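Annotators were shown the component list below and the corresponding predicted structure, then asked to write short factual statements about the assembly.
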Amino acid sequence: MEICRRKGVIEISELDPFLAELLRQIPASANPDGAPAAEQRLFSTPTTGKESELCAEWKTYVEPELRRLFQTATQTVAADLEQLNGNEKSLGNRTLRIPSKHADAWLSALNQARLVIAAKDNFTEGELNDHCHSPIGSRRDLSLFQVNFYGFLQEFILREMWSD
Amino acid sequence: MSCGPRQDGECRAQSKEMEGTTRVLSENAGTITTAEPTIEKETRSEEDLDVPWQVVVHNDPVNLMSYVAMVFQRVFGYPREKAERHMLEVHHKGRSILWSGMRERAELYVQQLHGYLLLATLEKAG
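Structure shown to annotators:
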C-alpha cells in the first residue's frame, strides 16, 4: 500500500483486497447499534454525574445533533469508498482517492470506528499500545489490527493537514 | 472580601460594614475623637456571582495524541505549543482543564469536543 497527497487529493494506491475490505468496513464499524458500551463512548455524558438536569437536557438537545454530525461524516466516507466497489479486477490492487476537503469527515469516521471497535472488544490500554502484536490469529486480533490500521490512516491525514 | 458562590439560584446582595473606627488626634488638645463608623454597601450582579465552570478533557486510550492536540487548537484557538502541553497533561495525568469561565460557553466547548469524540466534561470550579 502506498499513500501520498497530490493536487488536493489523498491517494491510497496498491491497496490489496484485504486492506480494501477493511476500508469498506469503516461505515459499518462506526455503527454503535447493539453495543451499549460503544453507544456510551460515542455519546458520553457532559458531566461527571452530579448534574442530572444538564445530562437530561444534553440527551434531548445535543445528542441528536451529534448523531447527525457523525452520520454525515460516515456518509461522506461511504460515498468515497464506492470507488472500491467496481467488479473488474476484483482481486487486483485498488486505488482510493480522497478529496482533501473530505479529510475532516474521514478523521471523524475513522475515529468513530476505532472507538466503537475498542469499546465492543473492550481493549485495554496495553493492547492498544502493543504495536509488536503477533500475527492475526483470531477475530479479536483482526479487530485490533483494524483499530491500528485506521489509526495509521488518521496519522497520515493529520500530518497532511499540519503541513498546509 | 470575595463574593461567595451563588446558592439556590439566588443572587445574594452583600453589605460590607467597616468595623474599624477612625481615630483623629487633635493637634492642640491632644484629645482623641472617634469618627462615626463608615458603612459601605456593595451589590453584585448575578453574573458576577456565577461560579466559574471548567472544561475538563479526560484521557482515553484510543484517541491519537496528534489528533487531540489538533482538536485543542481548533476548538480553543490555542497555539500548537499550548495545545500539545494540554494534550500531554491529559495523557500523563489523566485530565486537563482546558478552559474556565461562564457556563454557557463551557457547555458550547464541551459540545464541540464531543463532536470531535473527545471525553470532555464541564465541572464547577473549586
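Statements collected:
1. Strands of chain B lie at 14-17, 23-25, 32-34, 39-42, 53-58, 95-101, 119-124.
2. The radius of gyration of chain B is 24 Å.
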